[in-house]
Amino acid sequence: MSRATDEGFSLIEVVIVVMLMGLVITAVLSSVITSIATSSVSRLGARVETVIVNAADRVNRAPKSCDYAPYAQAAAQTEGWSPNTTTVVQEYLVPGATPTVTGTWQTGTGITPACPSGTLTDLLVQRVSITVSSPNGRVSRFIQVVKSDV
Q: Residue 75 and residue 131: Cα distance in Å, rounded?
């Protein structure tokens, strides 16, 4: 009758198993970290999208004005962000001399950036360009709103 011998594992076998487990754990942890980072940027992007859509809606619904920046900045503030996360460029259309000549977009001055000579006029066409950036600056979105009596 022979006896079964219990020899166990050699040192080389143990080292190989530990190395393989280390590679697997490293790959899994790398995947988890990447998922967390992607999720964070995605969530931030969704918040920026919410702010920019809200800003565009506020500008679109605002009464005719020569300055729409406060409406766009209020959208950022409702998210708890500084108004500085929103940049607003306001212009008005100067029509061409004839119907075949293309008009040009002009920026007003001072506190009336969306009006010629600082006054509202009939048939005024205004373009409001809004850029919203996340507080950390990693995500940014841009939209334009055209307001018109025409």
A: 12
Contact of 117 with 94, CB cutoff 8 Å: no
CA distance 142 to 89: 11
Instruction: Return the residue matching tokens 């899994």.
Output: 28
Q: What count of residues does the chain have?
A: 150
Q: Which helix (H) or strand (E) holds 35?
A: helix 11-61
> In 133-149, which positions are buried (b, 16+ CB within 10 angstroms) versus exposed (e)?
bbbeeebebebebebee
pLDDT for the residue 38: 78
Q: How many Cβ atoms from other residues are within 10 Å of residue 85's Cβ?
A: 21
Q: Choose among 125, 122, 128: nearest CA to 148.
A: 125
pTM listed for this prediction: 0.74
3-state secondary structure of 120: coil
Q: Measured in Å, how far apart are the chain's first and last C-alpha atoms?
A: 106
Tokens standing for 134? 């996340």
